Amino acid sequence: MPDCIFCAIAQGEISARIVYEDDQVIAFEDANPQMPVHVLIIPKHHYSHIGDEVPEPLLGHLFATVATVARLKGVDEKGYRIIVNTGDDGRQTVHHLHVHVLGGALMPIRMGPAD
Ligand code: 5GP
Ligand code: ZN
């Protein structure tokens, strides 16, 4: 997808600190980490969001990679949070499907009642 920053990362056109990569997915450090561990996992192929007709085996592999990344980053025992921001209300800013893996400390509680 032209002008997609995560496609550019997947194709090696923009550098990123790669945590894990295979033929279908790539995981890299978030440029603006919100926690001591903050990794993004993306499919190499462009899908805008989780509802963008993503093949189920790929979705399965994407989420299986969460556990791989958690092990590689050393947060598998203490735990972590995964987030998939979707669309405008979900505050998705990069419109290439991605899973945030956040951990390395106790997550702050930020969510309150909807207004
Ligand atoms: P979203 O709000 O769309 O769920 O999250 C997008 C994430 O991508 C943000 O956490 C942001 O810091 C990260 N990000 C945006 N541009 C880049 C980039 O060029 N490189 C890396 N490594 N992360 C990026
Ligand atoms: Zn893309």
Describe this structure as you would to a colleague.
- The protein is an alpha+beta fold and 115 residues long.
- It has a single domain (5-103), classed as HIT family, subunit A (2-Layer Sandwich).
- It has two helices and five strands; from the N terminus they run αβββαββ.
- It has a five-stranded antiparallel β-sheet with strand order 1-2-3-5-4, covered by helices on one side.
- Strand 1 (18-21) and strand 2 (25-29) form a beta hairpin.
Bound molecules: guanosine-5'-monophosphate, zinc ion
CATH class: Alpha Beta
What is the overall number of helices? 2
Rg (C-alpha, Å): 14 Å
Query: What is the H/E string?
Result: HEEEHEE
Blueprint of the fold:
Layout: H1 5-10, E1 18-21, E2 25-29, E3 37-43, H2 56-73, E4 80-83, E5 99-103
Antiparallel strand pairs: 1-2, 2-3, 3-5, 4-5
Bound molecules: guanosine-5'-monophosphate and zinc ion.
Summarize the structure in short:
This protein is of the alpha+beta class and 115 residues long. Helices cover 21% and strands 22% of the residues. It has a five-stranded antiparallel beta sheet, covered by helices on one side.
Name its key features.
single chain, 115 residues, alpha+beta, HIT family, subunit A, 5-stranded antiparallel sheet, 2 helices, 21% helix, 22% strand, globular, binds guanosine-5'-monophosphate, binds zinc ion
